[in-house]
Design goal:
Strand content of chain A: 15-25%
Largest interface: A-B, 35 and 35 residues
Strand order of the largest sheet of chain A: 1-16-15-14-2-5-6
CATH topology of the largest domain in chain A: Rossmann fold
Number of helices of chain A: 11
Oligomer: homodimer
Number of domains of chain A: 2
Distance between the termini of chain A: 24 Å
Largest sheet of chain A: 7 strands, parallel
Number of strands of chain A: 16
Order of helices and strands of chain A: EHEEEHEHEHEHEHEHEEEHEHEHEHE
Helix content of chain A: 25-40%
Structural class of chain A: alpha/beta
Chain lengths: 294, 294
């Protein structure tokens, strides 16, 4: 069945909204584009809140912690609680502490930025990382396996370096070391272009070891597991709202959510949504999120 | 037929040597291990020269130019001419100028070290590279496709960075830009361990673009083509000598050389060489290169 473009009729919109108790929102391309809030976003969010809906902001971006995201949302006029934010740095920390149940005496080796480190610290997970300097002759001698490192976690890192990769590789040669990625997006959209994404940070390690990381970002269901690790909700009464078919909408469908809603303010186009033979099809779509206001 | 371990009998050794006019040598693991020359290597090389054999030193290491390699060989007591050295930095330069015949007004974007840049300059190929600093807000705006960049060439780079990869990605989005790698070795053996190899530098770009680079290192036959671009020889009268089945010996077999000789002073073991059902099998092998002296 082709996805339904929701009309502006109040009764149709109300019927769609009434099917759900919780809405999971992707952020970039749904609420904002880069630094600019999309029209009437704050009003839309406030409207859903006034109807008693639970909200969750779910993003693959691992460079920011929930605290930083909360400040960003509030700065854009969207008040929200920290428990309403689910970024891949947080899902990684939750997964390590509550799903993997990493032993207290083991550490996580992090390739990534402050968002990951903050969330690991908040969750009480010990971690180490590399200062990112050049590899030295001493490093060649001293680098090696480390039984204390139980997990290598790889996220977007604008200071990725040879030394960081060389250390990760030594740890991953131990088959007992778990290989995780905050997400495996190949690219990261910003400034209207594409730049290397978190998946480009783990790609060299996959090439060297033949190992594929478990991803804690959409569409991986490990992220859904992490969400359920901290929040009880009825999947059949949940709707995933996103701009990307291959991550957001797929995440909702494979997670068995009650519904998926696509918006056309980001990556995926109306042609892609309506394409015959498409494997990932949302239940409904809108030009812009605020069209849900009627 | 299982490979023959050459006995020390003078007539058998002479019969093997007599089949060839030219010997192609891998270097690391054959002539030396790290910084240490293997026993009687200089004597062995001198012996083959005294028999009138042509010699070629063929290495995937792209960080050094032929001039630097020549100095290394001479420093280890192996006199050699610059034309006897074929490193992947040189094969890349030759391939670009003589096989691709890159237009004079086009440039090569290099991820790699001084060896590549020196060889491109010697071959008269214009190139640009990145200074490797952090990516800046201005970069996000200014980075983009560049019609002047005809080739992206990727080799081992101990100063690999996000900015270098981000620029390469923008160039490679143009399907007309040729994607080359000096070699695609996943790891680089040094200090008795494995560290990220040149293939780990191009892996993020492959992951982002879905494009696989043409490799100019063993076992790629593009390297054999590059050798033939500067040196005429009868492949049937040539023998490849190496320590790795998957690169050196495969390179010789797929290149249709008259013979291949493995040595056990490097990566591949006698068990691997004699393994039943192995797909890459040398014609003969020796414990050490100097055993060819008898």
């Amino acid at each position: 069945m082709p996805p339904q473009k929701l009309s502006g009729k109040p009764e149709e919109l109300a019927a769609f909204i009434d099917k759900f108790d919780i809405f999971l929102f992707d952020c970039d391309g749904v609420l904002w584009q880069g630094a600019s809030l999309l029209p009437r976003t704050a009003e839309t969010i406030a409207h859903l809140r006034s109807l008693g809906k639970q909200l969750l902001f779910v993003t693959n971006n691992s460079t920011k912690s929930r605290t930083t995201y909360q400040a960003k949302l509030q700065g854009l006029g969207i008040p929200c609680g920290i428990n309403e934010i689910f970024c891949s740095a947080y899902s990684s920390a939750i997964y390590i502490s509550r799903v993997l149940r990493l032993q207290r005496d083991k550490r996580v080796y992090v390739i990534g930025e402050s968002g990951i480190k903050e969330e690991l610290a908040t969750e009480g997970v010990a971690y180490i990382s590399d200062d990112g300097g050049d590899i030295t002759p001493e490093d060649y001698d001293s680098f090696g396996p480390d039984e204390d490192v139980g997990v290598v976690l790889c996220g977007l890192d604008h200071a990725i370096s040879y030394r960081k990769l060389a250390r990760a590789y030594q740890y991953l040669r131990n088959p007992g070391t778990v290989f995780l990625a905050t997400n495996i997006d190949s690219t990261f959209p910003t400034h209207g272009k594409l730049f290397p994404g978190a998946g480009a940070m783990s790609a060299p390690l996959t090439y060297m070891t033949g190992r594929t990381p478990v991803s804690l970002g959409k569409p991986s269901q490990a992220m859904m597991d992490a969400i359920e690790g901290v929040l009880e909700f009825d999947r059949k009464r949940a709707c995933m709202v996103g701009d990307r078919l291959d991550t957001d909408i797929r995440f909702g469908i494979e997670g068995g959510l009650g519904g998926t809603l696509a918006v056309l303010t980001g990556v995926s186009t109306e042609e892609e949504i309506l394409e015959e033979g498409a494997t990932v099809v949302p239940d409904a779509y809108l030009d812009r999120l605020c069209d849900i206001l009627g």
